[in-house]
């Protein structure tokens, strides 16, 4: 009997799936499919690799009590115009079944994916592929090779994912932010969104994309929306470009919150009612939201201990020093432990006592500093900004796009951001610099009472500076011995630190500076300590070997030629203060390169020591977009060639260049002093942003810098 | 504020791990040994102190197949500061791994999580190869583990070879066989010359014990573009010829005929339905005026329209797919494509046969009866007594041109109950010639002029393969990028090409060129860097100890002429450079005709390789080549 029942159940389940399958197929390819016969493409796109005749995205959010079903689907009907496109669409990989990762811990539910593929031949004949029969399963994944697919065919496919999960409280779905365009041109795009009560939708379109329209539904508890557009060119992403700042795009996020209580808790900006789509975020939304989130809190004991017996020239100085101390106390102090744990050397966390505190989130940092400032009666504000690549803060929609900062209102305001090992007080994330932001005014160190807007400070090209002194000694007239001393400041410093440092390059200097107990000092058992020390040292030595290889490779990429016997030494980490530079010294040899022989004379390609410069080709010259860059920056190079005795150099005039305009510049000057040829160059980008009208001005100095790299001096016997 | 959460499980693990440290950390002797080994093997993280393979045979009475048991033991030592490695073992539908374990120095099992999954290979769409692997950490120098693996092959025909070399260097390697009297097996020793491999043999009752030992086995080469491993490493081929049970002798693979017999049994399992492609064959041949045209139409159609998708799934790894399936799906592997060409040619009235072949990657020929002999299938067309080989997996291949990988290789052509052993003809570098010509003159500090590039044979196929992989709207940009070497200093204009769809004739590119930054004027002199393409400049085979193999026999020919500007005379031209070795032949010359400078370069790699023994010479030459490229022409007033 049991067996029978089981059999019956199995039968019922499989027939439900069969029913679903048919419904899903009909959803895209049923009698209402307007694109069934759409087989032609406009002439203007005949030379493309492929064209989306129709692209459909569909999202449905359904709930029953705490059970949520999230459906997402995509259909693409694609005309394949060349072999590259056929290859691109000739194989598919997907999972038939998967586990939702949206329900944390408690109840996991199984999701199902439905896939349909058909090939439409040029004569209109449709061949639907039996995906179940054709696909091969490999490690839980289906691999499908599309049969009978040729240039000129249309491939029409859908991928439909049903993901059920339980959410007792609230759940914020991942935000979708994307340009309307795709890798191929799109003739027809349709995005549909269906929600029920308790689903809050933030949706807006930007930069000329059409608005989302509400479609009437039969039930008051259900809502339906759609966005349609035709004739969309394919995406192109040039150098120095923020797509969301100017490409037609849409952003949306759906938040599930079962009741008012959970609405408050949800991670996002919610509309008043789920009946309304939230299109913009007002400053009131922001301070309401942060009143719920920010609470001055923490144990100030470590700061008190740190400050004991110390005096500072100013309040600003004190804030800075506390910032660097906290960067260690709540961050870098534990890095060694994470490394030890990852390398399975031992389980380190128990050595830190009952309650070690590591700030893994921006919020922890903000709350703690709010508390410190409040207790020390130092005035401050919370700044809410969004990185410039998201577009303006006026177009803010997604909570995850927000960056929070603290502005300490000392005589000269000190800006503080959540730390990495390389952040500095006074220096904020470059992506929010020079952008409009909200200042949340904090009353009595606790509640946010109002918000105003401010333009965040900019950094200048002089502040973000890279300086080098490169000394070249001829080696047998076939190569050079090179010494390069570099110093980095500002954002260029932070980038270089990220690039060059491993944990041991900063953790131990922090231990020393703050007199902290090193992890291994906590280990009392002598034998264990010896063993762990050996293992950690082994790991560090191995990492250093790899780091050395990476340094050499990076130098070769920078110069675009091979270097030998490469050595790099970090002279100063530059981690304690905005004005402290990262200083690096490199020594290497260049063999059989940069010297061209002409009889007994030599042409020295000394311009190449500037390192490879940007080459703007014709396609880039025709750029149509505005220019969005990371930050203003400058590069000063001093290149010194020791002239061998009995020789002199000529052709210096080609190294005297001067192109300067409102966007930046490149200047260089060469002179002979004693037995040295000294060339000084200065290249700088003045702004974060340039309108397209200024592109030619940028090209002017970029070309000058490139041309510099191609110049040579003639070395000849006196 | 987030507190680090302590996981109870992790703490427990920590306690276990700490207790287990006793007797597993390296001894001072281990550390000393590791340091010494690292001095010898400076690029290896791990050394295998001892490695032994033990092979024995059983008979499966049910299916009459000879079972192979392969037991492997290794003692791996970390000789670098620290190492983290994957230890992996492969198996498939014909084999199984019964033991896969790692033990500490003190013989206690190290609990590494074993991952067991399909092996993913980017070149194979689907294959039945599976892999078991563990991630092993060696926390300090001298740390060592004992590895043990037992693998079983259900059928001796799939157990083809054993190699001595491993991913890591081995100090002591032993391979032993216990061969029962009922099994006739040949252990064919290959590439043993030059190595101190000792072999001992003894008889004990019905078992013959054979043991090979080899000390200080270097790690396998990590370089790319090497010959197949069967050429460069010593190994033993296991050729099981027959077995005798109850006085009945059952043949296995005694010679190629037995191998063919088995292949043929698989071919006979196919149920081809050529009717499906009848209309297509008619369409392709209807307007063809000659047989040659008919054959080309069919062969090229398969090249252009059937995608190569590799399946290796049990017996399907050896049995061709039905031609009608391949035709309908428009994809297949080499066997499916060969079968489709055969059936289509047959429909058109030609005599076409399936043909097994081991590509250049494999060192053996059909004198060795083993599944290790071949790895590919093509189709042989027998036309007016001549054999023409058609490889469906090649793209843009002209009929009668043979790819380097099949040239001079033995083929086994089906012939009913029997088979024909033949050889694919060889070719020479001339057939793949690539020519570059430029006629230039000075225009201030620019060089301007016209260029012509032409490609033949495999240089042409390679060009077309790359060109056609680009999206239509990017093809022009990519082609320009190829001609300008992606340098802003070179500008190409008025590009005219031959018909890229015609794979039977020479491929040509004609264009105008303007080159900046290669001419410098100082005082009354002009210095010209006439070599703006720098062919083979970066081709240094640094630290290489193994043969370098090229894709094809290469012959590159360049001729650049520069008109001497009026009022100038040539006061210095770079020196000529010549080298002629067995496998490479380079000739660089400059000639001043009075009116122009003629700069000629030829690079000939007639055997598509540089042998290990020639690498030193090549590198010395490469240095001279760079010196030559660094020389300037001086023009004086």
The best one-word shape of chain A is globular
Number of strands of chain B: 37
- The chain-level mean pLDDT of chain A equals 92
CA-CA gap between termini of chain B: 79 Å
Keywords:
heterodimer, A: 718 residues, nine-stranded mixed beta sheet, eight-stranded mixed beta sheet, 15 helices, 25% helix, B: alpha+beta, Immunoglobulin-like, C8orf32 fold, seven-stranded mixed beta sheet, 11 helices, 19% helix
Can you describe what's shown?
The complex is a heterodimer of chains A (718) and B (637). Chain A is α+β, with helices and mostly antiparallel strands and 718 residues long. Chain A has 15 helices and 35 strands. In chain A, α7 packs across α8. Chain A starts with a helix and ends with a strand. Chain B is an alpha+beta fold. Helices cover 19% and strands 40% of the residues of chain B. In chain B, β12 (197-204) and β13 (207-217) form a beta hairpin. In chain B, α6 runs antiparallel to α8 and α7 packs across α8 (334-347). The chains are: A alpha+beta (718), B alpha+beta (637). Chains A and B meet through α2, α10, α13, β26 and α15 of A and α1 and α11 of B.
How is the topology of this model organized?
The complex is a heterodimer of chains A (718) and B (637).
Chain A (H helix, E strand, L loop, with lengths): L1 H28 L20 E15 L2 E14 L2 H6 L2 E4 L2 E3 L10 E11 L5 E4 L1 H4 L1 E3 L2 E5 L8 E13 L3 E3 L3 E4 L6 E11 L2 E8 L6 E3 L6 E11 L10 H4 L2 E9 L2 H6 L17 H11 L7 H7 L7 H15 L5 H8 L19 H14 L4 E6 L17 E6 L5 E4 L18 E8 L3 E9 L9 E11 L3 E10 L1 H11 L6 H8 L11 H34 L4 E9 L9 E9 L4 E4 L2 E4 L13 H4 L5 E2 L4 E10 L4 E4 L6 E5 L2 E10 L2 E10 L3 E2 L4 H16 L2 E5 L1
Parallel strand pairs in A: 1-12, 22-29
Antiparallel strand pairs in A: 1-2, 2-9, 3-8, 4-5, 5-6, 5-9, 7-8, 10-16, 11-16, 12-15, 13-16, 14-15, 17-18, 17-20, 18-19, 20-21, 22-23, 23-25, 24-25, 26-27, 27-35, 28-34, 29-33, 30-35, 31-32, 32-33
Chain B lengths: L7 H13 L7 H13 L5 E15 L4 E14 L4 E9 L3 E9 L11 E4 L7 E2 L2 E9 L5 E10 L7 E3 L6 E11 L2 E8 L6 E8 L2 E11 L11 H4 L2 E11 L2 E4 L4 H12 L10 H8 L5 H15 L1 E2 L2 E2 L10 H7 L1 E2 L1 H14 L3 E7 L18 E8 L2 E5 L19 E6 L2 E6 L10 E10 L2 E10 L1 H13 L5 H10 L5 E8 L9 E9 L3 E4 L2 E4 L19 E2 L4 E10 L5 E4 L4 E4 L4 E8 L3 E10 L3 E2 L4 H15 L3 E4 L1
Parallel strand pairs in B: 1-10, 6-17, 16-18, 24-31
Antiparallel strand pairs in B: 1-2, 2-8, 3-7, 4-8, 5-7, 9-14, 10-13, 11-14, 12-13, 14-15, 19-20, 19-22, 20-21, 22-23, 24-25, 25-27, 26-27, 28-29, 29-37, 30-36, 31-35, 32-37, 33-34, 34-35
């Amino acid at each position: 009997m049991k067996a029978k029942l089981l059999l019956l159940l199995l039968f019922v389940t499989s027939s439900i799936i069969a029913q679903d399958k048919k419904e899903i197929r009909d959803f895209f390819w049923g009698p209402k499919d307007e694109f069934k016969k759409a087989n032609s493409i406009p002439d203007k796109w005949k030379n493309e690799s492929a064209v989306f005749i129709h692209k459909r995205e569909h999202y449905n959010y359904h709930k029953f009590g705490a059970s949520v079903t999230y459906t997402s689907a995509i259909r693409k009907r694609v005309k394949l115009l060349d072999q590259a496109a056929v290859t691109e669409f000739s194989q598919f990989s997907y999972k038939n079944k998967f586990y939702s990762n949206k329900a944390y811990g408690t109840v996991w539910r199984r999701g199902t994916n439905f896939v349909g593929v058909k090939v439409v031949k040029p004569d209109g004949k449709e061949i639907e592929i039996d995906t179940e029969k054709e696909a091969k399963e490999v490690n839980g994944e289906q691999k499908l090779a599309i049969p009978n697919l040729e240039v000129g065919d249309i491939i029409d496919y859908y991928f439909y994912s049903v993901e059920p999960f339980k959410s007792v409280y609230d759940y914020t779905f991942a935000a979708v932010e994307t340009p309307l365009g795709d890798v191929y041109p799109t003739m027809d795009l349709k995005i549909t969104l269906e929600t029920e009560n308790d689903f809050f939708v933030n949706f807006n379109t930007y930069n000329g994309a059409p608005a989302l329209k509400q479609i009437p539904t039969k039930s008051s508890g259900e809502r339906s929306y759609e966005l349609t557009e035709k004739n969309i060119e394919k995406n192109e992403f040039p150098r120095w470009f923020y797509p969301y700042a100017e490409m037609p795009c849409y952003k949306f996020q759906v938040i599930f919150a079962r009741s008012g209580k959970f609405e408050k808790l949800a991670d996002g900006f919610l509309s008043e009612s789920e009946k309304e789509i939230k299109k913009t975020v007002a400053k009131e939304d922001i301070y309401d939201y942060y009143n719920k989130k920010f609470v001055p809190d923490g144990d100030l004991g470590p700061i008190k201990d740190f400050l004991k017996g110390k005096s500072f020239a100013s309040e600003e100085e004190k804030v800075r020093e506390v910032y660097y101390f906290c960067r260690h106390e709540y961050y870098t102090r534990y890095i060694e432990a994470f490394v030890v744990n990852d390398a399975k050397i031992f389980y380190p966390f128990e050595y830190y006592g009952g309650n070690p505190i590591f700030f893994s989130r921006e919020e922890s940092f903000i709350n703690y500093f709010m508390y410190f400032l409040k207790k020390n009666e130092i005035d401050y504000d919370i700044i809410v900004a969004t990185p410039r690549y998201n577009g303006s803060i006026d177009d803010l929609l997604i909570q995850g796009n927000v960056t929070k900062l603290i502005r300490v209102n000392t005589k000269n305001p000190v800006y503080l951001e959540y730390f990495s090992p390389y952040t500095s007080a006074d220096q904020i994330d470059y992506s929010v610099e020079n952008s409009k932001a909200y200042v949340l005014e904090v009353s009595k160190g606790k509640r946010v009472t109002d918000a105003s807007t401010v333009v965040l400070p900019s950094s200048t090209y002089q502040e973000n500076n890279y300086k080098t002194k490169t000394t070249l000694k001829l080696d047998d007239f076939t190569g050079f011995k090179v010494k390069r001393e570099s110093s980095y400041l500002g954002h260029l410093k932070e980038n270089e630190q990220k690039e060059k440092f491993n944990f041991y390059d900063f953790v131990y200097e922090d231990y020393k500076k703050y007199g902290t107990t090193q992890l291994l000092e906590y280990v009392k058992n002598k034998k264990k300590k010896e063993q762990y020390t050996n293992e950690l040292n082994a790991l560090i030595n191995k990492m250093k070997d790899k780091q050395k290889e990476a340094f050499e490779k990076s130098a070769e990429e920078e110069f675009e030629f091979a270097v030998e016997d490469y050595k790099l030494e970090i002279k100063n980490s530059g981690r304690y203060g905005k004005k402290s530079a990262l200083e690096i010294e490199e020594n290497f040899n260049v063999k059989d390169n940069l010297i061209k022989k002409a009889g007994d004379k030599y042409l020295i390609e000394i311009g190449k020591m500037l390192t490879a410069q940007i080459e703007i080709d014709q396609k880039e010259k025709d750029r149509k977009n505005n220019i969005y860059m990371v930050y203003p920056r400058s590069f000063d190079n001093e290149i010194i060639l020791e002239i061998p005795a009995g020789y002199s150099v000529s052709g210096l005039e080609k190294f005297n260049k001067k192109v300067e305009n409102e966007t930046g510049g490149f200047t260089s000057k060469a002179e002979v002093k004693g037995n040295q040829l000294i060339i000084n160059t200065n290249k700088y980008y003045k702004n974060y942003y340039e309108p397209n009208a200024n592109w030619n001005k940028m090209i002017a100095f970029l070309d000058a810098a490139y041309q510099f790299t191609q110049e040579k001096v003639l070395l000849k016997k006196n | 504020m987030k507190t680090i959460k302590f996981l109870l499980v992790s703490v427990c693990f920590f306690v276990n791990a700490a207790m287990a440290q006793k007797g597993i950390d390296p001894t001072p002797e281990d550390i000393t040994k590791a340091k010494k080994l690292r001095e010898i093997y400076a690029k290896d993280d791990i050394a295998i102190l001892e490695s032994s393979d033990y092979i024995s045979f059983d008979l499966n009475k049910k299916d009459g197949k000879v079972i192979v048991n392969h037991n492997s033991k290794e003692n791996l030592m970390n000789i670098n500061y620290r190492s983290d490695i994957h230890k992996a073992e492969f198996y498939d539908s014909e084999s199984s791994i019964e033991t896969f374990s790692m033990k500490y120095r003190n013989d206690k099992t190290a609990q590494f999580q074993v991952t067991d999954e399909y092996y993913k290979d980017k070149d194979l769409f689907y294959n039945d190869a599976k892999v078991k692997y563990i991630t092993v950490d060696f926390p300090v120098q001298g740390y060592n583990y004992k590895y043990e693996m037992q693998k079983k092959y259900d059928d001796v025909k799939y157990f083809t070879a054993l190699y001595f070399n491993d991913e890591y260097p081995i100090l002591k390697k032993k391979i032993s066989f216990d061969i029962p009297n009922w099994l006739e097996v040949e252990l064919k020793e290959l590439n043993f010359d030059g190595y101190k491999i000792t072999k001992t043999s003894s008889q004990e009752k019905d078992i013959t014990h054979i043991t090979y030992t080899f000390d200080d086995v270097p790690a396998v080469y990590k370089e790319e573009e090497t010959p197949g491993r069967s050429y460069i490493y010593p190994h033993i081929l296991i050729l099981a010829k027959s077995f005798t049970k109850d006085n009945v002798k059952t043949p296995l693979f005694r010679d190629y005929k037995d191998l063919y017999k088995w292949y043929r049994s698989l071919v006979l399992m196919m149920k081809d339905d050529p009717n499906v492609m009848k209309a297509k064959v008619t369409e392709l041949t209807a307007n063809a005026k000659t047989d040659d045209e008919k054959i080309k139409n069919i062969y090229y159609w398969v090249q252009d329209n059937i995608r190569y998708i590799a399946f290796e799934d049990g017996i399907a790894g050896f049995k061709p797919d039905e031609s009608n399936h391949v035709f309908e799906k428009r994809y297949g592997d080499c066997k499916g494509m060969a079968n489709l060409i055969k059936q289509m040619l047959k429909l058109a009235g030609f005599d076409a046969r399936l043909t097994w072949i081991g590509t250049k990657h494999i060192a053996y020929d059909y004198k060795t009866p083993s599944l290790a002999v071949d790895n590919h299938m093509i189709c042989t067309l027998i036309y007016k007594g001549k054999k023409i080989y058609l490889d469906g997996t090649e793209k843009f291949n002209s009929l009668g041109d043979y790819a380097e990988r099949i040239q001079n290789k033995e083929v086994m052509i089906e012939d009913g109950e029997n088979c024909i052993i033949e050889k694919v003809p060889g070719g020479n570098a001339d057939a793949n010639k690539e020519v570059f010509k430029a006629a230039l003159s000075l225009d201030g500090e620019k060089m301007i002029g016209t260029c012509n590039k032409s490609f033949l044979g495999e240089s042409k196929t390679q060009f077309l393969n790359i060109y056609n992989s680009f999206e239509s709207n990017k093809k022009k940009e990519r082609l320009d990028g190829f001609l300008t070497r992606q340098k802003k200093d070179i500008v190409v204009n008025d590009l005219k090409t031959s018909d890229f769809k015609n794979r039977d004739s020479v491929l040509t590119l004609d264009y105008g060129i303007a080159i900046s930054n290669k001419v410098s004027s100082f005082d009354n002199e002009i210095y010209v860097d006439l070599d703006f393409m720098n062919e083979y400049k970066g081709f240094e085979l640094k630290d290489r100890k193994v043969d370098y193999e090229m894709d094809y026999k290469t012959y590159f020919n360049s001729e650049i002429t520069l008109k001497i500007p009026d009022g100038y005379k040539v006061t210095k031209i770079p020196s000529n450079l010549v080298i002629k070795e067995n496998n490479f032949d380079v000739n660089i010359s400059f000639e001043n005709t009075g009116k122009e400078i003629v700069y000629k370069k030829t690079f000939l790699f007639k055997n598509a390789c540089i042998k290990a023994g020639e690498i030193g010479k090549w590198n010395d030459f490469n240095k001279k080549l760079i010196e030559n490229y660094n020389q300037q022409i001086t023009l004086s007033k």
